[in-house]
Amino acid sequence: MRACQIAGLSRAAYYKRPALASERDAEVIDALNAIVTRHGRWGFWKCFARLRLDGRCWNKKRVHRIYCDMGLNMPRRRKKRLPDRSRQPLELANAPNRCWALDFMHDALYCGRRFRTLNVIDEANRECLTIEIGTSIPSARLIRVLSRLIDCYGTPNAIRLDNGPELVSQMFTEWAAAKSIAIRYIQPGKPNQNAFIERFNRTYRTEVLDAYLFTNLEQVQAITDQWLIDYNEYRPHEALGNIPPVQFMPRITTVPNLYRTMST
Q1: What is the pLDDT of residues 174-188, one digit of tens each?
Q2: Of 59, 113, 143, 144, which residue is most buried, by most CB within 10 angstroms?
């Protein structure tokens, strides 16, 4: 007793064994387990409201601490933070290969299987260079498609695109740097900065994707390739003075009509 007085300790506090957290919070743990066993997708506030309705008047901070210690807190889906981009003005090129624009589109087969399309156009004459069809178009396939286009049309000075994961990947950016191609990323949420390809996407959606029921990817590619010939060589383009793109601004290619042979 004298030693406790000298040390400034209470005898009761010195001899009393502190209760374990599992024992102290056992009632709260059992109540939470009962709720999440029956309703596994409920979050904290839903569980806490149910506890209050059941007459359990525990402090919300205590219940939340125990809820987190039990590992019941569901991860919150966070929006991916994109880097800040400078505004990209639309400057009409006066010659082919000054700037290409590309974008992805999504659709589904008749069976419900999803697929993607990679659309690439030349901003100078709005000519569609290719449309690649596939269930998945990762960075490696994107690079292969662009490499084939470069072999035919030459290397563009720049490519205008959005901030998709394939387009901001290290593999793609390093490939573009090795080819000395400037990447013009548009600002997130500003599709009007890539207006040429967005307008093309609308035409492709209306005249092909929404006009047919596709049974397989081969059928999508075949119909798309045939439509591309009509779009580039026959269909009048209002913004070009109602003449087709290849007549408005012809280009020199090493492989004539590449979009006729890309799928072969």
Answers
A1: 999 999 999 999 988
A2: 143
